[in-house]
Amino acid sequence: MGLQAYLTLAAIVFCIGLFGVITRRNTISILLGIELMLNSVNINLVAFSRFSGDVTGMVFAVFTICITVTEAALGLAIVILLFRVRRTVTADQLDLLKG
Amino acid sequence: MTGEALGFYCLSAVLVGSALAVVLTKNLFHAVLWLALALTGTAGIFLLLDAEFLAAVQLLLYAGGIVTVVVFAIVVTERLVGERISQTSRHIASGAAVSIVLAGLVVKAIMAGPLTSIRTPMTGDVTALIGETVLTRFVLPFELLALVMLAGLMGAIYFARPED
Questions:
Q1: Which terminal residue of chain B, N or C, has fewer Cβ atoms less than 10 Å from its own Cβ?
Q2: Shortest CB distance from A73 goes to which of B69, B91, B129?
Q3: Does residue B85 surpass a pLDDT of 80?
Q4: Does the beta-carbon distance from B70 to A32 stay under 8 Å?
Q5: pLDDT digits (tens, 9 = 90+) for B118-145
Q6: Segment among A22-31, B19-28, B113-122 with least mean pLDDT
Q7: Contact status, residue B22 vs residue B35, Cβ threshold 8 Å
Q8: How high is the pLDDT of residue B158?
Q9: ipTM score for this prediction
Q10: Which domains does chain A have, with CATH numbers?
Q11: Measured distance CA(A88)–CA(A82) in Å, rounded
Q12: Do residue A15 and residue B106 have CB atoms under 8 angstroms apart?
């Protein structure tokens, strides 16, 4: 399989994640969509790294995986805090900053 | 058809199918389980790309860590709210339009680009190479990453502290 096949797969998964982020109402579901998008970026990094024979892309993928895990932990902590304060799960109702 | 192509098509089907299930299924808990399948499929893709170490990291951190944390969050918030979290979608038409147009543009750019389909052979053990590169050329970002994770951990603990 060529590089194009892997890049196309990553692009499709990224767009599915984007669809989830746009359409979901639940905050946790939006986070799941973001996870899908970040995950497809890792496929791109590893594919470019493998086809160019340079290990740097895989090192970048290690960094993005670590940052994504931190982001997920923080995002879910914020979600739990929001639920505690506002007693709601829906992103549309979290409009305190709306002018 | 070679074994690699067969594996790629099977893993792609699993990955795309479970990703669609993540964004389309009604039950939030099922969506998380589908996400675990999608992340495991990505680990398989990494194996196809000769990145065994990344496949292991993917399984441990993503499929193990993130899925567990999300399940915890769902359980805790359901208990706090005291009702089952229903999950609905909105703007489905516009969301699908944006996603499909973006996918079309990106795939068109990929097909137009001068991309190689020849794998440059990696010299030596990929895992050892990754370790060497992290601790030589990327040692400063690596240490900063430790700081980021520490700050994230402290922030999460601060957010989740008991109410006083």
A1: C
A2: B69
A3: no
A4: yes
A5: 777 777 788 888 989 999 999 999 999 9
A6: B113-122
A7: yes
A8: 86
A9: 0.89
A10: 3-90 (1.10.287.3510)
A11: 8
A12: yes
Backbone angles phi, psi at A5, to 5 degrees: -65, -45
Interface contact B8-A58, CB threshold 8 A: no
Grouping H, G, I as helix, E, B as strand and the rest as coil, residue B49 is coil
Cβ-based contacts of A1 with chain B (< 8 Å): 4-5, 8, 48, 117
Cβ distance A8 to B110 less than 8 Å, yes or no, reads: yes
Residues of chain A with pLDDT under 50: none
Where residue B26 falls (left for φ over 0; alpha for ψ -120 to 50; beta otherwise) is: alpha
Angle (CA) A3 A49 A52, round 5°:
70
Chain B residues with beta carbon closer than 8 angstroms to that of A16 = 16, 19-20, 22-23, 99
- Proportion of chain B above pLDDT 90, given as a percent: 37
